[in-house]
Amino acid sequence: MANNGVRQESSVVANDGILTISGALTFATATAVFLQSRNFLLKNKVNKIDLSCVNVADSAAVGFLIEIIIFMKKQNSKFVFCNISTVLKSIIKVFAVDELITKFT
C-alpha cells in the first residue's frame, strides 16, 4: 500500500509475554520497528507477536517477519505470530514465504 505522502507511524509494546506491533509496517517504518522489537525481545520473555494493530503493510513487512524469525531462532526462543491481517497474508503469499511464516502462527 502506498503512503501517498502521509506520515506513517508505528509503535511496539511488550506486555505479559506479548509484543504488539501497531500502525504502519512499511519501508518507511520496518527498520525502526525491528530495532524497537529487538530491544524489547532482548529484555522481555515474549512468546507471542501480535500484529492485529498493523493497519498499513507493504513488502517490507515480510522482511520484518523474516528478520524476527531469524532473531528469535538465534535467541533460541519459541514464539508465534498472531492476528496477521488478510492483506499481509496476501503479501506473504506473493513472496512465497507463506509456508515459513505459517510455521510460526
List the helices and strands and how they pair.
Layout lengths: L9 E6 L2 E8 L4 H14 L4 E10 L1 H16 L5 E3 L3 H9 L3 H5 L3
Parallel strand pairs: 2-3, 3-4
Antiparallel strand pairs: 1-2
Walk me through this protein's architecture.
The chain is built from four helices and four strands; from the N terminus they run E-E-H-E-H-E-H-H. It is α/β, with parallel strands linked by helices and 105 residues long. It has one domain: Transcription Regulator spoIIAA (2-Layer Sandwich). Helix 1 (30-43) runs parallel beside helix 2. The chain is globular. The protein starts with 9 loop residues before the first strand and ends with a helix.
Quick recap:
By secondary structure, this protein is of the alpha/beta class. The protein is built from 4 helices and 4 strands, in the order ββαβαβαα. 42% of the residues lie in helices and 26% in strands.
